[in-house]
Amino acid sequence: MVSGPSLDEAAYVRGGATQTAVKILVVGHFAVGKTTFIGAISEIEPLSTEETMTRAAESVDDLKGVQGKTTTTVAMDFGRLTISDRVVLYLFGTPGQQRFVQMWEDMARGALGALVLVDPERLADSFAVIDLIEQYGLDYAIAVNRFDGSTSRDESALREALDLLDDTPIVTCDARDERSSAEALITLVRHLQDRAH
């Protein structure tokens, strides 16, 4: 288990410092919208390690349900979002393929929490991701990324399907939309604050 810092303001803001830097992971299975999410919300030009998928990747990555995908993250995505005068979120997007799982331990170190993006049409693909986040001891919120034409799911059905605790927040978002993505992150930050008290 990777232990992380506390959201308690005193742990970050001392001696006249004016901002709290908070490391947040944006995680999810392959092709769920992590790169799009960070690109939509980052106030700086996001760092993206998207590369064109090769024929070799087609034999490794399951493209079922994501026809037309031509790129994939090969290291990480990074962005920044200032949510108040005192709090700045540093967003680290993890690659979703199983072969990159070893990278997650380093990325989880020092993270305060995680926003788990899920595709409502591919919920089973989220199980391994949620297991990892729980293994690293990170608090998290679920953001259901509503793709064009995807079916709306009842929150209680989602909670049961993903085997979530009652206090795990679930929010619906559109990873392409800045406001919707910001609301998902705010939901996570409020959850982290509640857990800290």
Automatic annotation (TrEMBL):
GO MF annotation list: GTP binding; hydrolase activity
Keyword check for Cytoplasm: no
Keyword annotations of the record: GTP-binding, Hydrolase, Nucleotide-binding
Source organism superkingdom: Bacteria
Regions crossing the membrane: none
Pfam families from the UniProt entry: ATP_bind_1
Matches recorded under InterPro entries: Gliding_Motility_GTPase, Gpn, P-loop_NTPase
Family that this chain belongs to: Belongs to the GPN-loop GTPase family.
Protein name stated in the entry: ATP/GTP-binding protein
